[in-house]
Amino acid sequence: MLKGKHRRPSKAVRAVTLAGVAGAAVAVPLMTAGSANAASVATWDKVAQCESGGNWSINTGNGYYGGLQFSNSSWAAAGGTKYAPRADLATKDQQIATAEKLLAMQGPGAWGCAGAGGLTAGGPAAQVNTGGSGQAQQQAPQQEAPKQQAAPQQEAPKQQAAPKPQTTQPQAAPKPAAGHGNYTVKSGDTLGKIAKAHGENWKTVYENNKSTVGGNPDLIFPGQKLEV
């Protein structure tokens, strides 16, 4: 069970009773003029480490609250209710500021862990900031995780159209020579038929019309004029 219950004043001091704060009776030491009753933040940290394991928002349900294990009567008598209804609902600095007042009222004997923390009755006031709103002030602000930038999308390469096959235009057949002979070739004629009809040898007819017929004696065209 945690120590330091703020139940009694130090035996080394004379005490009077202060009543009327939340119905609680608190022993107040009779201080000499000019004496200081405070401790550094480091000293209060050591006391809290012994009292509550350094947990300034602890509430175990045993009737003692916060890092320095205030009872509700001690918290109210030292003015802590101006910060929060219970010590565990106040900030660390607010608890230390209230503990400074309780130290002035009851001395180090109010905490069972005073010896372990090196807490004494005299010292400079702790440098604390009592502003804020309790437990919400003690929580470290959560930093928003940086947004991950989306990787730039690479544009898919455009598919090149396949080249169109080149079509070869058929070359027009050379126009046959017309000739200047006395016989006009008809459809179905051959040099052999023409030569036989005129009593000639086809070779002779071919030789006489070679400039008109060309290099193939089997190829003559209707309308050509041959010399027979």
Overall description:
Helix content is 26%, strand content 9%. With 228 residues, the chain is α+β, with helices and mostly antiparallel strands. The strands form 3 sheets. The protein has a two-stranded antiparallel sheet. Strands 3-4 form a two-stranded antiparallel sheet. It has a two-stranded antiparallel sheet with strand order 5-6. Strand 1 and strand 2 (24-29) form a beta hairpin.
What key attributes describe this structure?
228 residues, two-stranded antiparallel ribbon, alpha+beta
Low-confidence stretches: 7-35, 136-143
Query: Largest sheet at a glance?
Result: 2 strands, antiparallel
Termini Cα gap? 145 Å
| Rounded Rg | 61 Å
Please tally the β strands and state the result: 6
User: What global shape is seen?
Assistant: rod-shaped
Give helix and strand order, one letter per element, not per position: EEHEEHHHHEHHHE
Question: Roughly what fraction of the amino acids lie in strands?
Answer: 5-15%
What structural class is derived from the secondary structure elements? alpha+beta
Mean pLDDT rating: 75
Major sheet strand order: 1-2
Number of helices: 8
Range of helix content: 25-40%
